[in-house]
Design brief:
The protein is of the alpha/beta class. Helix content is 34%, strand content 20%. The strands form 2 sheets. The protein has a 7-stranded mixed β-sheet with strand order 6-7-8-3-9-10-11, sandwiched between helices. A 4-stranded antiparallel β-sheet has the order 2-1-4-5, covered by helices on one side. Strand 9 and strand 10 form a beta hairpin. The longest helix is centred in the middle third of the chain and has 18 residues. It is globular, with a radius of gyration of 21 Å.
Length: 348
């Protein structure tokens, strides 16, 4: 296996031809994922998060889709791989759990049988051996009475239990990379915490590399080591969890963080929000895609800013033409990030 990140995505672009025109869903996304790393991808709905992940799994291939770029998982090139090669890789080397487990599980088959089917599709094992492995997996993800629950149908599981079953299915072939697309959406906070703890335990015990797709910054703070912020199909900022939360460089990131409420402050009359609406990906704005919503727009913004390091901090990159010192000054005046680091910086 080659040196470097376990997963390397380079200049990924995904376009869909629609009746209204060409929709540029993913526009030049590049990132790496190290072994055992926990990477969060955040942004509003329509920013390209899920399309990026599904393209890595080969799930956006269709006659109206145009896909370019490269994505290397070890020595396997995912974008140019044939359908048969992708079927061998999916589940075995890279797996995905989806936002709605009820729509991902077949309602007319028992949960255990669906996991058994995946195991036997990739490994030459007897059904009884696959069943024993399924029961072990259900037990490992915290489902009580796993032998009994393996014979149940999806509608007999709660939302949290279905999500645990999907995690068990994703882990059945011991993949190296797990993509979790909004795994805690529509779950109550107690079950959310249990799912987050489960993902962290799997990361620690098995060295599983995780890509977490979410819009919930609270979940990001709990699990991520590194964060990609996406907007309008592009990565607009990348950095460690501490860099993104305590020294964000892009105005869009400031807006996301500013939408969080503070328990140690008086309740505001109105929650902070980013003005405007996300851009049309059929006719995106010229230059910086965030430009129409950004209060800091200036004459250079109609040019596309490259994703590069401007803050001087290793590993932190952003797409904003503003000078780093000017960003910090405006961020303090803007008052949107609402985190302790901003208060400390202002006091200093």
């Amino acid at each position: 296996m080659s040196d470097g990140p376990l997963l390397r995505v380079e200049d990924l672009r995904v376009d869909f031809t629609t009746e209204e025109g060409v929709l540029h869903a993913v526009d030049g996304v590049s990132f790496g994922l190290d072994r055992g790393e926990r990477l969060a991808v955040v942004g509003e709905s329509g920013s390209g998060k899920s399309v990026t992940a599904m393209t890595l799994m080969g799930l956006t291939r269709s006659p109206n889709a145009s896909i370019s770029g490269r994505a290397h998982l070890g020595d396997t090139e995912l974008i140019s791989a044939g359908d048969e090669d992708l079927r061998r890789v999916r589940g075995k080397e890279i797996a995905m759990i989806f936002q709605d487990p009820m729509s991902s599980l077949n309602p007319v088959y028992r949960v255990g049988d669906q996991i058994i089917e995946q195991i036997r599709a990739h490994r030459d094992v007897a059904e009884e051996e696959a069943r024993e492995r399924t029961i072990e997996l259900l037990d490992a993800v915290g489902i009580p009475s796993p032998a009994e629950r393996a014979r149940a149908y999806p509608h007999e599981f709660s939302g949290g239990m279905r999500q645990r079953a999907m995690i068990a299915m994703a882990l059945s072939l011991e993949p190296e990379v797990l993509i979790a697309d909004e795994p805690t959406t529509a779950l109550d906070v107690t079950i959310q915490a249990q799912i987050i703890d489960l993902l962290q335990d799997l990361n620690r015990q098995f060295g599983l590399s995780i890509i977490l797709i979410t819009h919930d910054l609270g979940v990001v703070a709990e699990i991520a080591e590194r964060v990609l912020v996406m907007y309008g199909g592009r990565v607009v900022e990348e950095g460690s969890l501490e860099q993104i939360f305590y020294d964000p460089q892009h105005p869009y990131t400031w807006g996301l963080l500013g939408s969080l409420t503070r328990l140690d402050r008086d309740r505001p009359e109105r929650l902070s929000q980013i003005p405007g609406i996300p851009p049309s990906l059929i006719s995106p704005p010229q230059g910086c895609h965030f430009r129409p919503r950004c209060p800091h727009e200036f004459e250079k913004c109609p040019e596309v800013p490259p994703l590069e390091s401007r803050s001087g901090e290793p590993g932190q990159c952003d797409r904003c033409w503003l000078d780093p010192e000017e960003k910090r000054r405006r961020r303090m005046v803007d008052g949107r990030i609402g985190l302790a680091a901003a208060e400390e910086a202002a006091a200093g």
